[in-house]
């Protein structure tokens, strides 16, 4: 039996594709487990989705091939939230707001704030509270 893997994807839907039930088909027709982290529709009615898809490599590839039959851009980096190392002062202000510990003080002496991207659920709390604009969302 093939191994089940999880991949993080970002999808961009132009206005013309926004109302199509693409995610529904990923679940129903391609047997993928889809966990939507974040969805946003801009005032121009473009859509952004950050999601995890779980299935075999083959199922995921077939699902992505299906998504690409629409005018949807697929981004594999999953970098919905990034931290700019040059801007971060390690003030620690974001740490108590981060629900998963993706941002945490990793060294009690230096008070270094580490960011573990794989633990980030893209709740955007750090983007809202960082006084230095070090955390940013791709959306
Ligand atoms: S609040 Fe901003 S500057 Fe302060 S530690 Fe967090 S990311 Fe860095
Ligand atoms: S987006 Fe949310 S989970 Fe991710 S690092 Fe920022 S506060 Fe933590």
Key words describing this protein structure:
139 residues; alpha+beta; globular; binds iron/sulfur cluster; four-stranded antiparallel sheet; 8 strands; single chain; Alpha-Beta Plaits; 17% helix; 3 helices
Distance between the termini: 37 Å
The number of E-state strands comes to: 8
Question: What is the share of helical residues?
Answer: 10-25%
Given this structure, which CATH class of the largest domain is correct?
Alpha Beta
Report Rg.
17 Å
- CATH topology of the largest domain, which one? Alpha-Beta Plaits
- Tell me the structural class: alpha+beta
CATH H level of the largest domain: which superfamily?
ACT domain
In sequence order, what are the helices and strands, one letter per element?
A: EHEEHEEEEHE
Explain this structure to me?
The protein is an alpha+beta fold and 139 residues long. The protein has 2 domains: 5-75, 2-Layer Sandwich (Alpha-Beta Plaits); 81-137, Alpha-Beta Plaits, CATH 3.30.70. It contains 3 helices and 8 strands, in the order βαββαββββαβ. Strands 2-3-1-4 form a 4-stranded antiparallel sheet. A two-stranded antiparallel sheet has the order 5-8. The chain has a two-stranded antiparallel ribbon with strand order 6-7. The longest helix has 11 residues, at 57-67. The mean pLDDT is 88. One iron/sulfur cluster (SF4) binds at residues 83, 88-94, 103, 113, 126, 130, 132, 134-135.
What topology does this entry show?
Blueprint (H helix, E strand, L loop, with lengths): L4 E9 L8 H7 L4 E9 L5 E9 L1 H11 L5 E3 L5 E3 L19 E5 L4 E4 L9 H5 L5 E3 L2
Antiparallel strand pairs: 1-3, 1-4, 2-3, 5-8, 6-7
The chain binds iron/sulfur cluster (2 copies).
The site of one iron/sulfur cluster has 15 residues, from helix 3.
